[in-house]
Recover the amino acids of this structure.
């Protein structure tokens, strides 16, 4: 079936480990495609011949990619693994994630990738408060992992902490 010049197949299901590896390969640019984007439910890969391959994401995990920035960002909602570029490449960040019940989901140092993004797989259908720290600057945001939520967070500007 052809629609808009792109052949679209039925979504393919890969096991969780394989889909995460595929996402990482596109993010790190070790695997290339004309485009690879990730929605709340699917990884959509378009090859040079306009063929589109669709992979179903894990049922209980939500992919979100965060690009902390100081000066430059871009508006985005659906993360492009092959196109989005963040400002802070291969930098270390302290990342803390807490759910609405106050449970700490993550508290660790993470390194942004060559695209300037920090990729996370979080439990679905929840809301989280994320704090990102780098070089004395902090960014905080609430995000959620429901079906219609964004997979690209490019609005977390790192700023000096204000002392009271």
């Amino acid at each position: 079936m052809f629609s808009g010049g792109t052949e679209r197949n039925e979504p393919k299901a890969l096991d969780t480990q394989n889909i995460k590896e595929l996402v990482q390969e596109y993010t790190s640019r070790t695997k290339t495609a004309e485009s690879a984007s990730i929605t709340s439910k699917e990884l959509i890969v378009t090859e040079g011949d306009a063929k589109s391959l669709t992979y179903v994401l894990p049922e209980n995990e939500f992919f979100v990619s965060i690009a902390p920035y100081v000066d430059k960002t871009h508006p985005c909602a659906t993360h492009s693994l092959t196109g989005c570029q963040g400002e802070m490449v291969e930098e270390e960040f302290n990342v803390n994630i807490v759910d609405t019940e106050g449970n700490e989901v993550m508290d660790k140092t993470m390194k942004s990738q060559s695209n300037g993004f920090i990729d996370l797989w979080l439990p679905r259908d929840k809301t989280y408060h994320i704090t990102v720290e780098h070089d004395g600057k902090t960014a905080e945001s609430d995000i959620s992992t429901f079906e219609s939520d964004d997979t690209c967070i490019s609005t977390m500007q790192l700023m000096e902490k204000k002392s009271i």
